[in-house]
Amino acid sequence: MQKEPAVSTDQMLAFETDCHLFSGCGFEAPGLHSFVFEPMFSIGGFDFNKPILLALVGTLAIVWFFWAAFNKPKLVPGKLQMVGEAGYDFIRRGVVYETIGKKEGEKYVPLVVALFFFVWVMNLWSVIPLAQFPVTSIFSIPLGLALLVYILWVGLTFKRQGFVGAWKNFTGYDKSLGPVLPLVMIIEFFSNLLVRPFTHAVRLFANMFAGHMLVALFTIATWYMLNGIGIAYSVVSFVMTIVMIAFELFIQVIQAYVFVLLTCTYIQGALVEEH
Amino acid sequence: MNALVHMAETEVPQNPLVPPIPELVIGLIAFAIVFFFLWKKLLPSINKVLEERREAIEGGIEKAEAAQQEASDVLQQYKDQLAEARHEAARLRSEAQEQGAALIAEMRAEGQRQREEIIAAGHAQIEADRKQAAQALRQDVGTLATELAGKLVGESLEDHARQSRVIDRFLDGLERDAGNAEAGSANGAAR
Question: What's the predicted TM-score (pTM) here?
Answer without folding.
Answer: 0.68
